Amino acid sequence: MRVDLFDFELPPERIALRPASPRDSARMLVVRPDGLGDRVVTDLPGQLRAGDMLVFNDTRVIPAQLEGRRGEARIGATLHKREGPREWRAFIRNAKRVREGDRIDFGEGVSAIAGDRASDGSMALVFEGEEPVELLLERAGRMPLPPYIAGKREADERDASDYQTMFAKEKGAVAAPTAALHFTPALMESLGAAGILHETLTLHVGAGTFLPVKAEDTDSHVMHSEWGRIEAATAERLNAARAEGGRIIPVGTTSLRLLESAADETGRLHPFEGDTAIFITPGYRFRVTDGLITNFHLPRSTLFMLVSALMGRERMQAAYAHAIGTGYRFYSYGDASLLLPRG
């Protein structure tokens, strides 16, 4: 499909620079086949049914942005996918000044040797020393805010907590599964009291999620792969909930993509551990997803293509026009939407 079919005008001021406080006070646009509803996130228990299953991503964002030097050249690195105990693939700023075998000093006793360059422009970095890389990043790294936020302000101490979900446990993401940022212990208690279930899986979100689609046709766009895991017991509980009539509603596109990667053509989920590069566009037949909670995405993005696949492109264009016209906040720190393709 033509990428320009997923374009729309988004005023820059609609991109949120800070999350709502408290988190569950954010607005929530409910999109159903019969129309739109303006709500807030705390209304969620009343919008779902007892037996529905929410699926959260428990990945934890690491401080994956580094600033360093190779000689006199200033070098920036955003890690995006782990390749080994000490090796990460990274997108490099000022990459023309870095060659394979060069040593980059990131300060605080943290350094890495540049490796091969991949076709997507990323470069391998092998961190020196014996300390776990996670400890090195805690010392020298910064939270990797999306470029649409980082271009307007510096990351600060607030982001260290603002950019983690309440479910964050498994270290390895360089971007947050931001739909889950809206959830609080109080909201989870209300959902539980309403009979709404939840499970967690792990997908380490990579920096590729920030990259714009530069191709003119979706067939020419290559998705970056990301590592994920669904435990066998989790898959069985999800299958049981669906067999009993509950809807599977991932919280965030990351959860949705991993669920769809782990489901067979009958809609049954299987244990999963490995990489997925699934790219969902209109025409895709969803195997296990019955709805989605997600934030508002950018024009021409793979994420807007995904929600268009779930709900229909014209319906989502109309929903986003309503959201822009009525002041909803977009992107990682923005408001939420609840998408229910069958009402």
UniProtKB/TrEMBL annotation:
Catalytic activity: 7-aminomethyl-7-carbaguanosine(34) in tRNA + S-adenosyl-L-methionine = epoxyqueuosine(34) in tRNA + adenine + L-methionine + 2 H(+)
Compartment(s) of residence: Cytoplasm
SUPFAM superfamilies recorded: QueA-like
Biological process according to GO: tRNA queuosine(34) biosynthetic process
Cross-referenced InterPro entries: QueA, QueA_dom1, QueA_dom2, QueA_sf
GO MF terms, alphabetically ordered: S-adenosylmethionine:tRNA ribosyltransferase-isomerase activity
Entry's Gene Ontology cellular component terms: cytoplasm
Pathway the protein contributes to: tRNA modification; tRNA-queuosine biosynthesis
Entry EC no(s): 2.4.99.17
UniProt keyword annotations, A-Z: Cytoplasm, Isomerase, Queuosine biosynthesis, S-adenosyl-L-methionine, Transferase
Principal location: cytoplasm
Function, in words: Transfers and isomerizes the ribose moiety from AdoMet to the 7-aminomethyl group of 7-deazaguanine (preQ1-tRNA) to give epoxyqueuosine (oQ-tRNA).
Family the UniProt entry places it in: Belongs to the QueA family.
Subunit: Monomer.
HAMAP family: QueA
Protein name: S-adenosylmethionine:tRNA ribosyltransferase-isomerase
Native source organism of the sequence: Allosphingosinicella humi
Gene: queA
